[in-house]
Amino acid sequence: MKGWGIGLVPDLAIIKAKSKKHNRYLVECGVVPLTIDLSKGGPEELLSFIYLHSYIKVTFFFFYLKYAKSTLSGLLDSDFHVKLFNLRFIKNEIIGSCNKKLKYLQSGLLSEIEKILSNEAHPSLLIEACVIVGSLAYGDKECLTALFASNLLPTLTLFLNHKDDNVAEAAIRSIKIVYTCDFTYKFTLKDESLLVVVELLSSSSATIVENALKLISISCRTPERQLLVVNYPNLSAVKKIIEFLSSHNPKLQESSLQTLASLIHSNKQAAKVILCNFPDLQKTLYHFLKRTPDSIRLAACCCLAYLNKLNMLNNKSALFSMLLPLLVRLSSSGTPTIRIQSLNTLAFFIAEEPKLQKAACESELLKNLHEAFDNTRNDNERDLIQYQEELFFASH
């Protein structure tokens, strides 16, 4: 038995166009015709539903396929292609659906993923397994509880310095997602894992470095952790972070500023070590106040606000005249995330500063606060944004 059609997603689906004319459209769009022999290790049964799918003004039938009795049993198959097929199927199946995530978790998905990460060596299998772990982190509290109860996260950290950059990238992105979700504020990387992440700052991959910076930023919530990174042999971690400020990559600059802010927050000892060894840092931070995008300016504001609170800066009047109006302006423009973070930074900056509080009240701040309450996003919008983030993560 042969099924002939158009392969839209490799190893995942067969699409049968309605006419030769539609086939021509598909070929022109770069979708390659594919023939699959169902009698030779191919899909053995079709799922009981058919989706009507539309693509480039062409409507055609979309048949999802599955191997053997279930996708989970396919993960145990010795055939590489069968295993890869089922990993990709599960990855696409759970995107945006907490119910499907829970269903797979209850069926024993985590133990199967752990077996793959522990026993497999092929990069494609490891990447798909890492992506599934990250996707599960977009689920609800029950999903996160199951993740932390398993041994998956310590296993993932073993791939941070994998010889294949794509595997290392998939691992660190998944770990970052787990530790930045709403339910994991009380969890953090172990010291030994954090030091592995610090070593990744020397990676040649900008994506790996960016995610490493974000992981360091969210992992340094205590004075001990801050000093662990700051005092890393020969200040090599801080040197790298300062070097990234001169990068032409805005995302790398933003992540570096956020990491610096995290390292000096309420830690005078860490701030003193950094400023003594990098005396031009203050001038660099002022420079970033005039840069775009707003996220970079906000990150620089955070650094200066934290240093100011520690009494580590000179010429406070100049700082006040620049920082206060900028934070007020950022609180009324840009994305909701920028507005919220600007208000948080502003609240920290003017705390116990009566003159600054008076100046803030005389500015546009109260109007911005009123608009912030009026423009609070509802749950449906937050769910949509999370779905879009998860889809982007799974597709890279």
**What overall form do the CA principal axes indicate?**
elongated
Low-pLDDT residue intervals, each spanning 5 or more residues? 1-69, 376-381
Radius of gyration, in Å, reads 25 Å
Percent helix among the residues?
55-70%
Mean pLDDT: 77
Distance N to C terminus: 35 Å
Name the beta content range.
Answer: 5-15%
**Count of DSSP-assigned helices:** 22
Structure explained in plain terms:
The protein is of the alpha+beta class and 396 residues long. The protein has a domain at 2-66. It is built from 22 helices and six strands. A hairpin with a 2-residue loop joins strand 5 and strand 6. Helix 13 crosses helix 14 (250-264), helix 16 crosses helix 17 (294-309) and helix 17 (294-309) packs parallel to helix 19. Mean pLDDT is 77; it is low at 1-69 and 376-381.
Itemize the secondary structure elements and their pairings:
Elements: E1 2-6, E2 13-16, H1 20-28, E3 33-37, E4 45-46, E5 51-55, E6 58-66, H2 71-74, H3 80-94, H4 98-106, H5 109-119, H6 123-136, H7 141-149, H8 152-157, H9 165-180, H10 191-199, H11 206-219, H12 223-230, H13 236-244, H14 250-264, H15 268-277, H16 281-288, H17 294-309, H18 316-330, H19 336-350, H20 354-361, H21 365-374, H22 379-394
Antiparallel strand pairs: 1-3, 2-6, 4-6, 5-6
Helix pairs in contact: 3-6, 5-6, 6-9, 9-11, 11-14, 12-15, 13-14, 14-17, 16-17, 17-18, 17-19, 18-19
Question: Could you give a quick summary of the protein structure above?
Answer:
The protein is of the alpha+beta class.
What are the salient characteristics of this protein?
two-stranded antiparallel ribbon; 6 strands; single chain; four-stranded antiparallel beta sheet; alpha+beta; 396 residues
